[in-house]
């Protein structure tokens, strides 16, 4: 029975399509098999294959074109674009910005389409500037010290265009300006006491303003004090200095290191005073004595001898 | 950037010459007169250290020259006093009031998100402080950009520190002399 049906089927299959024949065959061998499933299995596969073939065929033709457009052409554009862009910025911006551009090169490659557009717009000006830029670049490269400086700079310049940040010259200039301000603010932080604990620009500015005002008030106060201390204005600075030399070790004995600067200052200041002969209140010999052994002079009671009668008069006026 | 001893020394010399100039005119006067003289001479001495290279020193010299022209001229005899006193400061930036108001209105009309609001507030705070700094530093209103302002503030603080250090040491010395 089997053989007969098979023969019949095969006979029937002569004018059936290959597909239908296969289905029939499957149906014959596996009676429970769902013909639709078989159709699903066999039919689409061939169609798919055809499709894939066709796709591959078209793709095989198309892909080089696409790649040519995107990668080859693109990279050419990008390379030249980058190059141009950087040069453009060399001319326009300062070294810092150029540095940033160097650093941003990678980031720029992501945004190269933008830049190429920009370049297309400004290609004329760029070509004009190209020669200049080349010269500048040559200068830069010739300067080895500059290059080393730049390489050192890379450590702490954090201004760089991240993804999505603008790379046009305006925003880069703005970023460089902010960087400069923050750098100066750091110096100010070192200079102004108690400012290093404060974060935030507003707080720091507050502290700086307070400090400047306090310094100005101190100047007022000190000048007032000096005016009150000296009944006449002729208590000259040089004899005050001389006194300071004598008295400083007495008042600041526990901290000799803090006194040292004033010694230096005073000793360096003396030659000038001696040249300016009008206001000599102690002669060179005594000055040597004071500078060499101040404490002993003072302790031995020789100090009054050093000063002119002018100062002694002053003391008597003061009632000391 | 602490005040160096050479800076102090130079300041001292300048100040002394200033006081010498004052001496004949303000001997035996009251305390406030003397104080004013001391303050003026110290200021001019501090400003002349920079030889007119910085904006604040030029502004300070011009300000003191308005108070006591003779002294400033005498003290700056080494440098070209005339050029310093009459040197024009950079122009003040003047905004047209109407334009500013209109642009503010436009800004207000734009709806902002919370983060933008906070950023704007912070910016405003910083701007106010910067304005305050401008009023504190002499000639600050002439410094158009923030970078210049902060740079000048740095220099001004160093000079002020020099001035205060020298003056304090001298006051201490004078007091010590009186006590003795």
From TrEMBL, chain A:
<dbReference type="GO" id="GO:0003700">
    <property type="term" value="F:DNA-binding transcription factor activity"/>
</dbReference>
<keyword id="KW-0805">Transcription regulation</keyword>
<feature type="domain" description="BHLH">
    <location>
        <begin position="165"/>
        <end position="215"/>
    </location>
</feature>
<keyword id="KW-0539">Nucleus</keyword>
<dbReference type="InterPro" id="IPR024097">
    <property type="entry name" value="bHLH_ZIP_TF"/>
</dbReference>
<dbReference type="GO" id="GO:0009637">
    <property type="term" value="P:response to blue light"/>
</dbReference>
<dbReference type="InterPro" id="IPR011598">
    <property type="entry name" value="bHLH_dom"/>
</dbReference>
<dbReference type="GO" id="GO:0005634">
    <property type="term" value="C:nucleus"/>
</dbReference>
<protein>
    <recommendedName>
        <fullName>BHLH domain-containing protein</fullName>
    </recommendedName>
</protein>
<dbReference type="GO" id="GO:0003677">
    <property type="term" value="F:DNA binding"/>
</dbReference>
<dbReference type="GO" id="GO:0009911">
    <property type="term" value="P:positive regulation of flower development"/>
</dbReference>
<feature type="region of interest" description="Disordered">
    <location>
        <begin position="105"/>
        <end position="153"/>
    </location>
</feature>
<dbReference type="GO" id="GO:0045824">
    <property type="term" value="P:negative regulation of innate immune response"/>
</dbReference>
<dbReference type="Pfam" id="PF00010">
    <property type="entry name" value="HLH"/>
</dbReference>
<dbReference type="GO" id="GO:0006351">
    <property type="term" value="P:DNA-templated transcription"/>
</dbReference>
<dbReference type="GO" id="GO:0046983">
    <property type="term" value="F:protein dimerization activity"/>
</dbReference>
<keyword id="KW-0238">DNA-binding</keyword>
<dbReference type="InterPro" id="IPR036638">
    <property type="entry name" value="HLH_DNA-bd_sf"/>
</dbReference>
<keyword id="KW-0804">Transcription</keyword>
UniProtKB/TrEMBL annotation, chain B:
<feature type="domain" description="IBH1-like N-terminal">
    <location>
        <begin position="5"/>
        <end position="65"/>
    </location>
</feature>
<dbReference type="GO" id="GO:0040008">
    <property type="term" value="P:regulation of growth"/>
</dbReference>
<keyword id="KW-0804">Transcription</keyword>
<dbReference type="InterPro" id="IPR044549">
    <property type="entry name" value="bHLH_AtIBH1-like"/>
</dbReference>
<keyword id="KW-0539">Nucleus</keyword>
<dbReference type="InterPro" id="IPR044660">
    <property type="entry name" value="IBH1-like"/>
</dbReference>
<dbReference type="InterPro" id="IPR059002">
    <property type="entry name" value="IBH1_N"/>
</dbReference>
<dbReference type="Pfam" id="PF26576">
    <property type="entry name" value="IBH1_N"/>
</dbReference>
<dbReference type="GO" id="GO:0000976">
    <property type="term" value="F:transcription cis-regulatory region binding"/>
</dbReference>
<keyword id="KW-0805">Transcription regulation</keyword>
<dbReference type="GO" id="GO:0006355">
    <property type="term" value="P:regulation of DNA-templated transcription"/>
</dbReference>
<dbReference type="GO" id="GO:0009742">
    <property type="term" value="P:brassinosteroid mediated signaling pathway"/>
</dbReference>
<protein>
    <recommendedName>
        <fullName>IBH1-like N-terminal domain-containing protein</fullName>
    </recommendedName>
</protein>
<dbReference type="GO" id="GO:0005634">
    <property type="term" value="C:nucleus"/>
</dbReference>
């Amino acid at each position: 029975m089997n053989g007969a049906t098979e023969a019949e089927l095969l006979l029937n299959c002569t004018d059936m399509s290959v597909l239908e024949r296969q289905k029939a065959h499957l149906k014959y061998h596996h009676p429970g098999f769902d013909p639709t499933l078989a159709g699903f299995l066999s039919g689409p596969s061939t169609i798919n294959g055809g499709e894939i073939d066709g796709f591959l065929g078209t793709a095989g033709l198309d892909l080089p074109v696409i790649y040519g457009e995107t990668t080859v052409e693109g990279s050419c554009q990008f390379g030249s674009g980058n190059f141009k862009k950087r040069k453009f910025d060399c001319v326009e911006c300062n070294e810092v910005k150029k540095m940033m551009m160097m650093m941003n090169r990678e980031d720029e490659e992501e945004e190269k389409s933008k830049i190429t557009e920009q370049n297309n717009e400004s290609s004329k000006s760029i070509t004009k500037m190209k020669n200049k830029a080349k010269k500048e670049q040559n200068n830069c490269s010739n300067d080895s010290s500059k290059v080393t400086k730049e390489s050192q700079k890379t450590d702490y310049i954090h201004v760089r265009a991240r993804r999505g940040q603008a790379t046009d010259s305006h925003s880069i200039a703005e970023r460089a300006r902010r960087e400069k301000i923050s750098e100066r603010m750091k110096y100010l932080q070192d200079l102004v006491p108690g400012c290093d604990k404060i974060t935030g620009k507003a707080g720091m500015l507050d502290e700086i303003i307070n400090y400047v005002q306090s310094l100005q008030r101190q100047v007022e106060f000190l000048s007032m004090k000096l005016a009150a201390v000296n009944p006449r204005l002729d208590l000259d600075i040089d004899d005050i200095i001389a006194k300071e030399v004598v008295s400083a070790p007495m008042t600041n004995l526990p901290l000799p290191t803090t006194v040292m600067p004033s010694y230096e200052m005073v000793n360096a200041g003396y030659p000038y005073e001696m040249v300016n002969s009008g206001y000599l209140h102690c002669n060179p010999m005594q000055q040597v004595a004071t500078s060499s052994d101040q404490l002993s002079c003072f302790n031995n009671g020789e100090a009054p001898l050093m000063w002119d009668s002018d100062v002694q008069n002053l003391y008597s006026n003061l009632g000391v | 950037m602490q005040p160096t001893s050479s800076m102090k020394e130079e300041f001292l010399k300048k100040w002394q010459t200033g006081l010498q100039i004052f001496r004949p005119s303000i001997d035996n006067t009251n305390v406030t007169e003397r104080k004013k003289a001391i303050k003026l001479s110290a200021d001019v001495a501090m400003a002349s250290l920079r030889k007119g290279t910085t904006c604040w020193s030029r502004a300070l010299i011009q300000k003191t020259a308005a108070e006591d022209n003779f002294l400033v001229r005498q003290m700056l005899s080494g440098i070209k006093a005339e050029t310093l006193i009459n040197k024009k400061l950079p122009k003040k930036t003047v905004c047209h009031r109407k334009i500013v108001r209109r642009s503010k209105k436009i800004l207000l009309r734009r709806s902002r998100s919370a983060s933008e609001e906070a950023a704007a507030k912070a910016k405003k705070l910083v701007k106010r402080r910067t304005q305050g700094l401008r009023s504190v530093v002499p000639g600050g209103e002439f410094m158009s950009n923030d970078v210049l302002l902060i740079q000048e503030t740095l220099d001004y603080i160093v000079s002020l520190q020099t001035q205060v250090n020298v003056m304090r040491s001298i006051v201490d010395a004078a007091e010590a002399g009186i006590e003795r």
